[in-house]
Recover the amino acids of this structure.
């Protein structure tokens, strides 16, 4: 009798566990199908007068996706205008410049109507990118500006000394190990690093001056790393209009002759598998040889 009781209990556990597994599977399948169905509504196959929307979100480290999305919209004649929807504190110097150049290429070479709409933050590298657009919109309370360059790293030499660890470096070239986090910089190295930052700063100021059709001296006068609200930025001519995203859409549609409500199209998202939905992208957490070797100093157009 006891054996029969245990068998029934095990049976109910198996039934309950199986039902729970099927329930979880059904939920994730529903999410998966919803994501794919939602993407179809804003794909390139939409009809009517279209405005392409490209999101510039988070810290700018890899420009590839944004550049490709901008180029794809720029090559599509059915897209009447492009809005760069900005919510970013900036990021890498070179990454920001690549996106900036693509925006500028669309504006000046392909004569596409491209604007930037700043949501919460459009600072440093994100403002660098926005300055290449034909027009910049921002909310009253948006954070705008932060024209400047920063490079920083942690010196853990004292920690290594405490742990009785001694770095061994072989080099050819006085400045080859500049920025070595195990020691202080020499005066010559500090001067060398500052010259690099000064050069990048000059590029930033010139790019904003070109994009905003302003004198370089006028931009340099306010390019001290500060940020401003959208309301203040308007008075400094860093933006063209105080407007939320919907107002930016309406104004853009009017500027390109779209009558009525335009169709907003977004780049197609990368299709996710059920495994992706369950576990996400694990690649960023997996160590690689390249990540283990990443100890160099980074230069950033970044608001902190």
């Amino acid at each position: 009798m006891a054996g029969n009781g245990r068998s029934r209990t095990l049976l109910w556990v198996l039934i309950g566990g199986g039902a729970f597994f099927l329930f979880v599977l059904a939920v994730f399948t529903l999410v998966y199908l919803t994501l794919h169905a939602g993407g179809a509504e804003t794909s390139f196959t939409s009809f009517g007068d279209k405005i392409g929307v490209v999101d510039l979100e988070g810290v700018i480290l890899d420009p590839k996706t944004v550049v490709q999305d901008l180029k794809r919209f720029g090559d599509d004649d059915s897209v009447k205008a492009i809005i760069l929807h900005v919510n970013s504190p900036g990021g890498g110097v070179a990454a920001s410049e690549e996106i900036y150049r693509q925006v500028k290429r669309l504006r000046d070479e392909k004569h596409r109507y491209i604007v930037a709409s700043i949501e919460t933050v459009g600072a440093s590298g994100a403002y660098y990118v926005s300055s290449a657009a034909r027009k910049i919109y921002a909310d009253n309370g948006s954070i705008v500006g932060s024209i400047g360059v920063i490079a920083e790293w942690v010196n853990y030499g004292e920690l290594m000394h405490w742990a009785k660890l001694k770095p061994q470096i072989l080099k050819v070239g006085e400045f080859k190990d500049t920025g070595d986090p195990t020691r202080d910089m020499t005066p010559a190295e500090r001067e060398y690093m500052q010259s690099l930052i000064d050069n990048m700063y000059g590029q930033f100021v010139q790019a904003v001056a070109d994009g905003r059709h302003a004198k370089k001296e006028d931009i340099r006068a306010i390019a001290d790393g500060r940020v401003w609200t959208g309301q203040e930025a308007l008075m400094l001519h860093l933006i063209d209009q105080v407007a939320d995203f919907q107002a930016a859409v309406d104004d853009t549609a009017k500027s390109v002759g779209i009558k009525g409500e335009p169709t907003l199209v977004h780049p197609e998202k990368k299709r996710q598998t059920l495994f992706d939905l369950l576990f996400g992208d694990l690649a960023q957490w997996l160590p690689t040889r390249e990540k283990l070797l990443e100890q160099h100093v980074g230069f950033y157009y970044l608001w902190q």
Summary: The longest strand covers residues 79-88. Residues 44-269+292-302 form a domain with the 2-enoyl-CoA Hydratase; Chain A, domain 1 fold (CATH 3.90.226.10).
